[in-house]
Design goal:
mainly alpha; Four Helix Bundle (Hemerythrin (Met), subunit A); two-stranded antiparallel sheet; 5 helices; 2 strands; about 5% strand; elongated; disordered N terminus
Length: about 110
Amino acid sequence: MIKGGFVGDLQWNKDFAVEQSGEDNELLEELLTLLADSSASDLAKIKEGIAAGDGTVVADAAHSIKGAAVSLGLEGLSQVAYEFEKRGRAGELEMLQLDVLEDLVGQLKTLKP
């Protein structure tokens, strides 16, 4: 699904994530839980940044989500977070589709090794 240029799909490369965890499903499950929790925290920061009109806060929190998503093969989430980061740094907060990022972060809790 595409909304305003944002892709609303996690696009999880599970094989990459399994490889990154050394094929340890317990470790992968722990990493996914940490990602879901940290992304929820970063999403809260993004919402605060948008409300305050602070693009730096938005960009920094989106950068954090992007890096964590890349490390576990979540290509779609990484792309959306990158757009948030880029638009936050440019001060284009009105261009952000928060519902797409909220949906993706919510989907993280459904991922299983």
